[in-house]
Amino acid sequence: MSEVYAVRRQLLRDRCAAVGSAAALVSRPANVRYLAGGAPPGAVLLLGPGGDVLLAPRDPRGDPADGRTDEHLRLSLLPGPDGDPVVAAADLAASSGAESLAVEEHHLTVSRHRAMSSVAPGLGLADLGATVEQLRVVKDEEEIACLRIAAEITDQALGELLESILVGRTERHLALELERRLVDHGADGPAFATSVATGPNSGQGRHRPSDRRVEEGDFLSVCLGANYRGYRCEIGRTFVIGTTPADWQIELYDLVFAAQRAGREALVPGAAYRDVDRAARYLLDSAGHGGGLAPWTGHGVGLEIDEDPQLAPAAMGKLDACVPVTVEPGVHLPGRGGVRIDDTLVVRPEADGGPELLTITTKELLAL
Predict the structure, then answer these.
(1) From CA 127, how far away is CA 222, in angstroms rounded?
(2) Which of 34, 51, 129, 172 is geometrically suited to a Cys-Cys bond with 209, CB 3.0 to 4.6 A?
(3) Does residue 245 sit in helix, strand or coil?
């Protein structure tokens, strides 16, 4: 893996050189991990004339959740607990002969930016922008393998919950149980806060679990995901509790299912982000639900649960192969509940079988 991280850092170095910057400072944790293999708390990565250095405020704890740092990287620990690795990196870049330093302005605070200018007044600071995030969009097969395992863990946790007694249990209790099951099956933790929504709460995006108890006839919608070696997936499913679904529940479910299928089928290399969104949104809008839809149909996943690309009406850009995304349309009817269906998939060319579905829990409308 060391070679992989070295190649990634060289790509970033080449892009910086193309815009006239000989050094770069990466401070956003997910970006540090992408380039260094690990991201100890507070650590930043300096790519400079004197070599690549990971600067950390303290000794890495060796926590597996932080990743495993590339052994070929030089580690520099700050001498005191109150030091700022960003400021120390600016000082090191200047003393190594760098005349300019590209930084992630979207991550740095104004005060840290000023502190860097103060300690290295002769160092020109440029904006690195979202360069690293752009490099992260297309995943290699090792990254996709981690996502695949995260999805398997998520499917296992959800499948076990569906076999248990649900009536009378609270949303909060079910969410905690799902997160425990994720860890039991090998996850580093949940990819995001697990959402469990019942009855009138169902179908809402990222609903915060409450003390409402599951009742017969409820829609139950869940959204969860595992974090495995830093890579995060997402699945969302909706079920009916304890009885044959009502006609309105079947009708709404079939509509959202059709929209989700249209979005999945639109995931081909070269497809515009907004066209994927339109494929799913059109069916829901045509059925009169356009006013309450989420601003996007899906998004990229990887070291973060919500990363580029965004599958949204105004999104610019086109899909590449090996880009993992979610497709997650949903409809919520105030006071009644609703349906969300959410999968994580990897964009693949038609010759390779089309989009690879990572989350495989059934999308049949089950009565639990």
Answers:
(1) 40
(2) 172
(3) coil
Give burial (CB, 10 Å; 0-12/13-18/19+) of 248.
Answer: exposed
CA distance 250 to 248: 5
DSSP state of 283: H
For the purposes of burial, counting CB atoms within 10 Å of the CB of 174, is it exposed (0-12), middle (13-18) or buried (19 or more)? buried
Considering only CA atoms, which of 229, 326, 224, 309 is closest in space to residue 272? 309
242 CA to centre of own chain: 33
Q: How far apart are CA 163 and CA 148, in angstroms?
A: 23
* Three-class HEC string of 22-57: CCEEECCHHHHHHHHCECCCCCEEEEECCEEEEEEC
Length of the chain, in residues: 368
For 322: left if phi > 0, alpha if psi spans -120 to 50, otherwise beta; the answer is left
pLDDT at 17: 84
* pLDDT tens for each residue of 22-56: 899 999 999 999 999 999 999 999 998 878 999 99
The one-letter code for the residue type at 4 is: V
Residues of the chain short of pLDDT 50, as ranges, are none
CB neighbours of 182 closer than 8 A, spacing ≥ 6? 153, 154, 157, 189, 190, 224, 226
pLDDT of residue 179: 98
Q: 175-227, pLDDT tens digit by residue?
A: 999 999 999 999 999 999 999 999 999 999 889 999 999 999 999 999 999 99
Quote the pLDDT of residue 250.
Answer: 97
pTM beyond 0.85: the answer is yes
Going by C-alpha positions, the residue among 78, 111, 117, 71 that lies closest to residue 94 is: 117
Rounded Cα distance, 193 and 209, in Å? 9
pLDDT given for residue 1 in this prediction: 65
Strand order in the sheet with 226-228: 189-190, 226-228, 231-232
The separation between CA 307 and the C-alpha centre of its own chain, rounded to angstroms, equals: 5
